[in-house]
Specification:
The complex is a heterodimer of chains A (415) and B (373).
Chain A: H1 3-39, H2 54-87, H3 103-131, E1 139-146, E2 149-154, E3 166-169, E4 171-175, E5 180-186, E6 191-193, E7 202-204, E8 210-214, E9 220-225, E10 238-244, H4 246-256, H5 268-278, H6 301-304, E11 321-322, E12 327-328, H7 332-339, H8 346-351, H9 361-369, H10 371-374, H11 401-411
Parallel strand pairs in A: 1-5, 4-10
Antiparallel strand pairs in A: 1-2, 2-3, 5-8, 6-7, 9-10, 11-12
Chain B: H1 4-27, H2 31-54, H3 75-91, H4 94-118, H5 124-161, H6 164-187, H7 193-217, H8 221-229, E1 259-266, E2 269-273, E3 283-285, E4 292-298, E5 306-310, H9 315-320, E6 328-330, E7 339-344, E8 356-360, E9 363-371
Parallel strand pairs in B: 1-4, 3-9
Antiparallel strand pairs in B: 1-2, 4-7, 5-6, 5-8, 8-9
Helix pairs in contact in B: 1-2, 1-3, 2-3, 3-4, 4-5, 5-7
The chains are: A alpha+beta (415), B alpha+beta (373).
Chain lengths: 415, 373
């Protein structure tokens, strides 16, 4: 190839690259604008920039100035780089004199970032120690993660009216203005608990107990998400923290401690109770439920589920979600009414629970019909060898439509 | 003259006969291994006969003979031993079987490399060097590891046989001898190699001989008795001191970072302290199917153990009924001011019929309820 041919080809290649870069820059610009606009979304329940409690505000107070300082430094660096690229771009000028090493400049450029980081670290350590405090705790809640749902149990705490342990799942209910300490652990793999509006993340590790402070300023429902990849349905392992006024929390506690009320005889719900005893009680506990001979129906999730636990359904319809908070028990309209309610009435609306009119029958029935179809789980018998035949998540139970009708009628009674 | 192939298969046959007799004499069973060894004898004898008859099928050519370059080889015999161990392992244990596999593979590798190197050129010196260059980097580390393993295993047998005090003295003496040998080698760098080798070999042989003697005489009585009682896994939860269980400290305080509660026995009272709760607790909530670590702190002047009663009637009552099943687990006897952890994993919820609690052995009225939701 002659030199002339080479130059022609090189010019053509450069022209093509420029066209591609031009298109790519337009695309990158559009993507950047989209990202910025998305950041302005108002309906973002897991937004880390909207703290709703003192712990999250502590983090926010730290990240706001750090973000500002980092942004300014980033901007200075970016402008300097772009300025240098344009100002000293190759225009055929001779190569300027090369120099090496400017000790004064290098030392300055080392000391300034070190000082900035030192200042940041002082405030960071201060925040870390404050967030790790446990001696001012007013209430403790044990939180246990397993594939793919969270269990909450409230030990006896007479000052809150908890005279017998309460066990729940999906939604963490807590009183506002109360320093709550979560004691986290896991039954199977590592999970991570995160309600962005109330505090940062904390891993739930099998065999260990990690603590996390939560406190909410106002009544409301705050969304969260497992933030440690934990298997097939990690993305569906959600949680919600429900902050109630102290009066509403007392009502919630009283309801959770209320004894079991069996469905009336000769009703569809009573038939549903029988289906529950035959099918569901293998894993799911309903406190107070007894068999026909009067003996307590004790669930045996340890014999059927890899993690050794399944959600306790004693007061299922007092919650708004099921299946690891992946699905709503409330229909969309009823759920919106609770979520969008002003803080002074959200408690009352939440305590109303799930009524027959508000029940999200579609998702509940789909779940009962074939759970693994609507939430990815290791429920295929062929995949169970590694867990000694035990399920991870709820299996397909081959329930008939008649059984599902009965079960729905029964479950709605578990207020 | 007998050919190499004949010698190999003859050796297999003879050793297989020995193995067959030994296996029957020692274990009085043939089963699959006996059939395999019998089959090996038949095949070995047949092939040995055929090779003897055909002289390995080789024809001698005076002009191309390489027999001058070949040396006598031990590897056919070692291979035969490997095959026999392999077959014997089918009757006895998998350890013997896999030992046979290792010996056979090693012998075949050596045999093949030797056969190749002896025909690599017409210069026997070059051939020997070629073999060394290929195999010595493997042989030396393997032999050293095996030799050290034998010495260490022998020393462990000695330590299991002698009593604790003698064991400590032996350990000190062995360490001192190694130090002395090291010092001698350091200050006498020009020592003749055979002298150094002799010191090492004598020391190793002494330990191996001691190990063999110890293995024959068996472990010391205390260990045999303790193993028979199963004290490594069996916790005796009574107030009295257990002969073995309370002797071996578990050292489980490394679990401190994951403590669910600290149970303190002080002034005749049993209380639980939970991180985050200022007031001492008289009940603990324990998650279902979750390993839960509890630290027991003995703040009294006596030795006590903490017992977790995990449902059903108490063991003593059950024993009276002829039921030896225990639904209890416990710490060892904990000295005054000391601590020990206890790990619980309870699968079933507590109820009126199924009550769980912690108590001090011998003082049943001091209880902390374990609530499993």
């Amino acid at each position: 190839m002659s030199r002339r041919q080479f130059d022609i080809r090189l010019s053509a290649t450069i022209a093509s690259v420029r066209v591609v870069l031009r298109k790519a820059s337009k695309f990158a610009g559009a993507a950047g604008i989209s990202a910025v606009v998305a950041g302005c979304a108002t309906n973002a329940p897991q937004d880390t920039w909207q703290p709703k409690g003192p712990n999250s505000k502590l983090i926010d107070d730290l990240q706001q100035p750090v973000f500002a300082v980092a942004g300014i430094i980033g901007l200075i660096v970016a402008v300097a780089v772009v300025y240098t690229m344009i100002k000293y771009r190759d225009r055929g000028q001779p190569i300027p004199e090369q120099t090496h090493g400017k000790p004064a400049l290098e030392i300055t450029l080392t000391i300034i970032p070190a000082l900035i980081l030192a200042v940041v670290s002082v405030f960071t350590f201060g925040a870390i120690f404050k967030l790790a405090k446990t001696d001012d705790t007013e209430m403790i809640i044990n939180v246990t993660g397993q594939q793919w749902w969270w269990e909450y149990d409230y030990p006896v705490q007479n000052e809150f009216g908890i005279t017998q342990p309460i066990i729940s799942s999906g939604q963490l209910v807590m009183p506002v203005g109360t320093k709550v300490l979560l004691r986290e652990t896991s039954r199977d793999v590592i999970h991570s608990y995160w309600i962005p509006a109330l505090n940062g993340k904390r891993d739930a590790v099998p065999g260990r107990i990690h603590t996390l402070r939560l406190e909410a300023d106002e009544p409301g429902i705050y969304a969260g998400q497992c933030t440690e990849f934990c298997g097939l349905s990690h993305a569906n392992m959600r949680m919600e923290a429900v902050a109630l006024s102290k009066e509403d929390f007392a009502k919630w506690v009283a309801n959770q401690q209320a004894p079991y009320v069996a469905p009336a005889k000769d009703t569809l719900a009573k038939q549903g109770e029988e289906v529950f005893l035959n099918q569901c009680v293998r894993c799911h506990q309903v406190n107070g439920l007894t068999r026909a001979d009067g003996t307590p129906a004790i669930a045996a999730p340890d014999e059927n589920v890899w993690s050794g636990a399944a959600p306790n359904l004693s007061h299922l319809m007092s919650r708004n979600t099921f299946a690891g908070a992946m699905f709503n028990l409330l229909s969309k309209q009823c759920r919106d009414e609770v979520w969008n309610a002003p803080s002074d009435v959200v408690g009352a609306k939440y305590l109303a629970g799930v009524t027959e009119e508000c029940l999200n029958q579609k998702d509940l029935r789909a779940w009962l019909r074939n759970a693994p179809e609507v939430k990815p789980m290791y429920a295929n018998p062929a995949d169970l060898a590694v867990s000694n035949g035990k399920y991870r998540g709820m299996p397909y139970l081959a329930l008939s439509e008649d059984d599902i009708n009965k079960l729905v009628a029964y479950l709605i009674t578990l207020k | 003259m007998f050919s190499t192939g004949f010698k190999y298969f003859f050796g297999v046959t003879v050793l297989s006969v020995v193995a067959l007799i030994m296996s029957y004499a020692l274990f009085e069973k043939f089963a699959l291994g006996g059939v395999a060894i019998s089959f090996l004898i038949a095949v070995g004898a047949l092939l040995a006969g055929l090779l003897a008859f055909s002289s390995d099928g080789t024809t001698r050519d005076a002009n191309t003979s390489t027999s001058d370059l070949t040396t006598q080889s031990i590897w056919p015999l070692v291979s035969a031993i490997g095959v026999v161990f392999l077959a014997l392992g089918l009757v006895t244990s998998s350890v013997v079987f896999f030992g046979g596999v290792v010996v056979l593979l090693a012998a075949l590798s050596e045999w093949m490399v030797q056969a190749w190197s002896e025909r690599a050129s017409t210069d026997s010196t070059h051939n020997a060097a070629a073999r060394k260059r290929l195999l010595n980097p493997i042989e030396f580390p393997v032999l050293a590891a095996v030799g050290l393993g034998v010495v260490i295993f022998s020393f462990s047998r000695i330590m299991l046989t002698v009593n604790k005090s003698t064991g400590a003295i032996l350990f000190i003496v062995a360490g001192a001898l190694v130090l002395v040998a090291g010092v001698i080698f350091a200050i006498k760098p020009n020592m003749k190699r055979p002298v150094g080798a002799a010191i090492c070999v004598l020391g190793a042989l002494g330990i191996v001989a001691g190990g063999v003697a110890s293995a024959v005489s068996g472990e010391r009585e205390e260990l045999v008795e303790a193993a028979a009682e199963g004290h490594f896994s069996h916790a005796e939860c009574g107030p009295e001191e257990s002969k073995y269980y309370d002797k071996l400290s578990e050292g489980t305080l490394s679990l401190r970072s994951s403590v669910s509660a600290t149970v303190v026995y002080q002034d005749g009272e049993l209380i639980a302290r939970i991180q985050g709760l200022a007031k001492p607790q008289k009940s603990l909530t324990v998650g279902r199917s979750i390993p839960t670590n509890i630290i027991f702190r003995n703040a009294t002047e006596g030795e006590f153990r903490l017992v977790a009663h995990l449902g059903g009637s108490k063991s003593a009552d059950k024993a009276a009924d002829g039921d030896s099943h225990k639904d209890e687990t416990c710490t060892q006897l904990v000295a005054p001011g000391a601590e020990q952890s206890l790990t619980l994993n309870i699968a079933k919820p507590s109820s009126v019929e199924n009550v769980y609690y912690l108590y001090i052995a011998g003082s049943d009225e001091k209880k902390i309820e374990l609530v499993v939701p």
